[in-house]
């Protein structure tokens, strides 16, 4: 049982470190709306922590949100991302809503149409 607890904590730490590292990169680059990036990172951190002991499916949704935020598709034009932070915001908001966490929705963009998963 102790190994399982460490695994949950390790996964949580890894995801939060990925979010923080990406935010640090955005701070040093000309990444556009840094305020939005910081709000998205805060929302992701809260989602990661709040689902540490949730079902595997819920943790997978949060992991997908983190990866979507972190693994930005880079273009060849001056190293800028092709995908906007607004696209990240839509995905993160939709996952927050699907997980029953409307308090973690980052204002300014409406979620995608339709539910992200079956209720």
Keywords:
119 residues; 4 helices; disordered C terminus
Could you describe the 3D structure shown?
The protein is mainly alpha-helical and 119 residues long. It has one domain (2-104). The protein has 4 helices and no strands. The protein has helices spanning 2-28, 34-50, 56-70, 85-98. α1 (2-28) runs antiparallel to α2 (34-50), α1 (2-28) packs parallel to α3 and α3 runs antiparallel to α4 (85-98). The longest helix has 27 residues, at 2-28. The radius of gyration is 15 Å and the shape is globular. Residues 113-119 have low confidence and may be disordered.
Task: Tell me the layout of helices and strands.
Elements: H1 2-28, H2 34-50, H3 56-70, H4 85-98
Helix pairs in contact: 1-2, 1-3, 2-3, 2-4, 3-4
